[in-house]
Amino acid sequence: MSAAELYDFIVIGAGVQGSFTAYQLATRNKKTLLLEQFTLPHTRGSSHGQTRLIRKAYEQDFYTQMMNECYELWAKLERETGATLYRRTGLLVMGPESSQGYLGFKKSLEKNKTPMVVLTPENFNQHIPNVILADGDGAFVDTTAGVLYADRALKVVQGQFQKLGGVIKDQEKVTDIKPGPIVTVTTSAGVYQAKGVVITAGPWAKTLLAHVGIQLPLQVVRINVCYWKEKIADTYHVKKRFPCFLLTEGDEAKSHIYGLPSNEYPGLMKICYHSGTETDPDQRDKLTDKSDVDILQRYIARHLPGLIPQPAVVESCMYTVTPDHHFVLDCHPAHGNIVIGAGFSGHGFKFGPMVGKLLCELSLGEVPSYDLSPFRISRFQTNIKSSL
Ligand SMILES: Cc1cc2nc3c(=O)[nH]c(=O)nc-3n(C[C@H](O)[C@H](O)[C@H](O)COP(=O)(O)OP(=O)(O)OC[C@H]3O[C@@H](n4cnc5c(N)ncnc54)[C@H](O)[C@@H]3O)c2cc1C
Question: Number of C-alpha atoms within 13 angstroms, CB side, residue 120?
């Protein structure tokens, strides 16, 4: 093997989490290789698409607290590159007023002194026209929330990584990982070695983790990404200051329903159900289950009178979900130089810069900037092969 193929770190998977981790390692002057199985950019994982929601409203304080720094990291990347990655729109949170979910969001924002505006049934329509609040629902706006330009963010962070000397090799599927003081990574095109490896393989994490003898309870689900046509163009447009929204639960929905103002496709608003059907990441196009679309249709017909309750565009994406819906950010229990970022459970994009920083700190053996106990592997009954 030539000397050029020995790296300080190899990051496997160039989605949002792997790209930010590689970038962070490069900022610390580490010679880093980012490997990706598909040709970049691609739409076959979890990080593609034009937009994602960013918010501080969370039921758990630890996410809200991490988001404070995360907003700063997004802004820093914007300053460094001149790219617009974030647009503030606010997030309208609605849900049964005394339900645990709705109150959890509200209390976390109050406790963390995050700016918010509480709306009453009386003044709701004055602030939010063209939305019908369900009887008994409360509503407030997290005014710090907004939209992230997802595809652009990936392009920008990968570009910054390369400017710092980082190497990206796409169209190289990792087929084997051999742990050791120097880790050997085999791909469809070559063999590489590094002092440490970070696995950020999104829906394929289970497959890759099997190579290093660990099984995590990760479930991959297909999400139908639905866009709904406005009856009158721009009714819910971002330029008209229509906010993102999140319904915590309701008659129609056991899981969240969330939406983003019309922006990416002219006249279409993105509204999705935060749940889907289990799938194999390589077979997701075979799934035809549309029960989530039925739920959305019923909700839209009742509460968003400015939209045609038939999806105009349906794309697909995948969540990789843990049993408690919290991330996995940890070192391999038997091999400290293999770091794992997985199970982002459908809400990880906004944390990309923070996840990158934390996985970088773990890789360098530093004390992480945040308490990572909610994200440890030891919270699961994991199956680890000690022979490896
Ligand atoms: C419809 C939808 C809406 C969402 N909305 C939001 C939102 O509003 N806000 C938010 O914060 N989050 C949101 N998320 C979640 C967020 O997008 C994900 O948590 C995040 O993109 C996960 O990133 P990742 O890097 O872990 O995975 P991925 O983006 O899937 O990246 C993993 C990469 O690893 C590569 N890979 C896998 N195996 C190999 C291998 N063997 N060799 C080489 N490369 C490999 C894959 O090809 C892939 O590119 C949403 C997700 C979806 C699907």
Answer: 2
Do the beta carbons of residue 187 and residue 175 sit within 8 Å? yes
Fold of 3-47+151-218+324-381: FAD/NAD(P)-binding domain (3.50.50)
Cβ 62 under 6 angstroms from ligand 1? no
pLDDT in tens, 198-231: 999 999 999 999 999 999 999 999 999 999 999 9
The domain limits of the chain are 3-47+151-218+324-381, 91-143+219-321
* Pocket of ligand 1 contains residue 259 by CB under 6 Å: no
Residue 173 φ/ψ region, left for φ over 0, alpha for ψ in the -120 to 50 degree band, beta for the rest: beta
Question: Does ligand 1 come within 6 angstroms of the Cβ of 292?
Answer: no
Which of 346, 372, 377, 378 is closest to 359 using CA atoms?
A: 372
Ligand 1 atom nearest residue 208's Cα = 41
Residue 204: CB within 6 Å of ligand 1? Answer: yes
Q: Is the CB of 45 under 6 A from ligand 1?
A: yes
**Which two structure tokens, joined as six digits, stand for 14?**
């160039």
Q: Please return the burial class of 330, using the count of CB atoms within 10 Å of its CB with bins 0-12, 13-18 and 19+.
A: buried
Mean pLDDT in residue range 43-57: 95
Q: Same CATH topology for 3-47+151-218+324-381 and 91-143+219-321?
A: no
Residue the block writes with tokens 């739409």: 43
pLDDT at 103: 95
Q: 56-66, pLDDT tens digit by residue?
A: 988 899 999 99
Which residue among 46, 199, 220 has the greatest number of ligand 1 atoms within 8 angstroms of its CB, and so is best to mutate?
Answer: 46
- The residue contributing the CA closest to ligand 1 atom 22 is 46
